[in-house]
TrEMBL record:
The chain crosses the membrane at residues 26-47, 59-82. It comes from the Bacteria. The keyword Transmembrane helix applies. One of its GO terms (cellular component) is plasma membrane. It is a multi-pass membrane protein. Keywords: Cell membrane, Membrane, Transmembrane, Transmembrane helix. This is DUF350 domain-containing protein. The keyword Membrane applies. Pfam families: DUF350. It is found in: Cell membrane. Belongs to the UPF0719 family.
Amino acid sequence: MNLLSLLLQVAPIIPAIERGLVGTLVYSAIGIIMCVVGFKIVDWLIPGHMARQIAEEKNMAVALVASAMILGICIIIAAAIAS
């Protein structure tokens, strides 16, 4: 089997891979943006500023709550995108 015949067999697969790659990148960007927006909404709703507590005051309890919240939002977004 020569290289040309191998490329002709693989060629129909390339557009499907490109569509899948573009879709993955788009959904990833949407998911990341939604996660950041969700974090900002929760930060806005609770008293105090989570980002400042984590960055400036090194509050580990707030960091754990924020990480659990972000993980929960990401699971919800992944389930919504997958369905």
